[in-house]
């Protein structure tokens, strides 16, 4: 998963620079999972793009990778606008966008997280959201580690 994070974040650098958002990766250890590297890059890129889109300028985004309970855990932590509690389950629905995002007219379709959830589930993983309005959001992706044969 280390390569996945490196490649996904590399592709987000121009967007980060545009908004002067600083970026930090905290890779505790590499974790190997089964699946399609390009799809997983797509997942992390989508989450990084959201973190950037829904954060003001001059904030910080952090990505962590660690192992827990035979799973690889990736966290994407932003200091952005946050998501209200009742909205959290809805953001994974197709075409759903929180009002603030719609009125911002950031040009999204609301499909990103629906695809992300689908891809994570195809890898037998799950996604968790922690968010506080005005403080920021943590997206946590949990993927089962590859089992030795
Ligand atoms: P796109 O299809 O281009 O990704 P989108 O970003 O609007 O469009 P999703 O990525 O599916 O769609 O996200 C759905 C909604 O969830 C967003 O419109 C936004 O309201 C909210 N959201 C997602 N990520 C964050 C975040 N990190 N901070 C705050 N709100 C978020
Ligand atoms: Mg998006």
Automatic annotation (TrEMBL):
It comes from the Bacteria. Signal peptide: none annotated. Residues 1-147 form the Histidine kinase domain. It is found in: Cell membrane. This is histidine kinase. It comes from Viridibacillus arvi. The chain holds residues 366 to 514 of 514 of the full protein.
């Amino acid at each position: 998963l280390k390569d996945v994070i490196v490649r996904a974040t590399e592709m987000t650098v121009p967007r980060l620079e545009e908004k002067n958002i600083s970026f930090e990766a905290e890779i505790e250890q590499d974790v190997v999972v089964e699946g399609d590297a390009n799809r997983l890059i797509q997942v992390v890129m989508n989450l990084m793009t959201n973190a950037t889109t829904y954060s003001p300028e001059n904030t910080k985004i952090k990505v962590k990778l660690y192992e827990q309970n035979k799973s690889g855990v990736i966290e994407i932590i932003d200091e952005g606008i946050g998501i209200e509690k009742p909205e959290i389950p809805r953001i994974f629905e197709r075409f759903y966008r929180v009002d603030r995002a719609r009125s911002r007219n950031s040009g999204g379709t609301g499909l990103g997280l629906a695809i992300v959830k689908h891809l994570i589930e195809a890898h037998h993983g799950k996604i968790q959201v922690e968010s506080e309005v005005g403080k920021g959001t943590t997206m946590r992706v949990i993927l089962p580690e590859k089992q030795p044969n």
